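Why should sequence recovery work at all? Because a backbone constrains its sequence more than one might expect. Tight turns favour small or flexible residues, buried strands favour hydrophobic ones, and helices have their own preferences. The token representation captures these environments compactly. In the example below, the structure is given first.
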């Protein structure tokens, strides 16, 4: 049984109480008694609300389970799923609400990196350093790897994933990524599929094609480069504030056969990492919370 200490009318795990009393509050300059009185007030205010919400969640789950059994679509049943009827039922019980139409959301009091830029955020527990490192590394990812290794591209017509490198699938990956570039950072009067070289001029990024030179439809989409202007090794592009990097290396396995020498295309996959101090799995007991 976990050792407890009474504080502000609450029963607190002694390990957590000692950490707060001996380390956290002295460092923050907060009074011990006042702190626990404030926590007790919050618990008293929110406990009835949380209990009501938990009951509501249980009621919704019970209703959803009952609907599936009645419709014959529960696990192990053989009836086909009727998506339209299911959606109508979910709206009827309040699980889904009608589309409110266009609306705006304010960002007052939100950190600048997510107030001014919409993008994915990663969440990792503070107790697992490897997860945090993985999250930091996952901020950028290879589109070539993502398309090749997942089912985003069908494995039909000889484009399977099994075994060693499949050039048929590889070509389909390249075509898919070029289509992505045409959609996000298009060229004027040309396609990234036709580019044989990228160069940087005083006017920005230029793309050489068999039909001549093309420029970005939006010059602001060009964010920077590395290497020589006439033969950059990296080209950084921007779409809605998120970045795309063309890695150009004609000596690489892929770049050697690519008309533009592109070895890989990297995408900015996340903008922040939330380091969670109260992960529902990692920090359950008082000692675990104090350790976090």
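From this structural description, the recovered sequence reads:
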């Amino acid at each position: 049984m976990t050792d407890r200490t009474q504080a502000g009318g609450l029963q607190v795990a002694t390990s957590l109480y000692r950490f707060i009393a001996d380390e956290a509050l002295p460092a923050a300059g907060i009074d011990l008694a006042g702190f626990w009185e404030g926590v007790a007030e919050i618990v008293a205010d929110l406990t009835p609300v949380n209990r009501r919400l938990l009951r509501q969640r249980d009621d919704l789950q019970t209703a959803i389970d009952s609907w599936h059994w009645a419709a014959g679509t529960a696990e192990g049943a053989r009836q086909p799923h009727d998506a339209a009827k299911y959606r109508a039922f979910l709206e009827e019980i309040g699980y889904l609400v009608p589309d409110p139409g266009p609306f705006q959301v304010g960002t007052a009091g939100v950190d600048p990196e997510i107030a001014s830029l919409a993008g994915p955020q990663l969440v990792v527990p503070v107790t697992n350093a490897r997860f945090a490192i993985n999250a930091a590394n996952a901020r950028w990812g290879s589109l070539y790897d993502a398309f090749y290794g997942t089912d985003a591209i069908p494995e039909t017509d000889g484009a399977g994933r099994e075994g060693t490198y499949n050039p048929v699938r590889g070509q389909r990956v390249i075509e898919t990524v070029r289509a992505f570039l045409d959609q996000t950072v298009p060229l004027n009067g040309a396609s990234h599929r036709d580019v044989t070289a990228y160069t940087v001029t005083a006017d920005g990024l230029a793309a050489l094609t068999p039909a001549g030179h093309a420029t970005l439809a939006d010059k602001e989409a060009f964010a920077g480069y590395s290497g020589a202007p006439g033969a950059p090794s990296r080209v950084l592009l921007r779409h809605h504030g998120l970045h795309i990097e063309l890695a150009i290396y004609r000596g690489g396995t892929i770049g050697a056969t690519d008309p533009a020498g592109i070895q890989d295309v990297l995408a900015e996959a996340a903008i922040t990492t939330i380091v969670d101090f109260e992960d529902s799995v990692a920090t359950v007991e008082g000692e675990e919370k104090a350790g976090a």
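A few observations help interpret the result. The longest strand covers residues 231-239.
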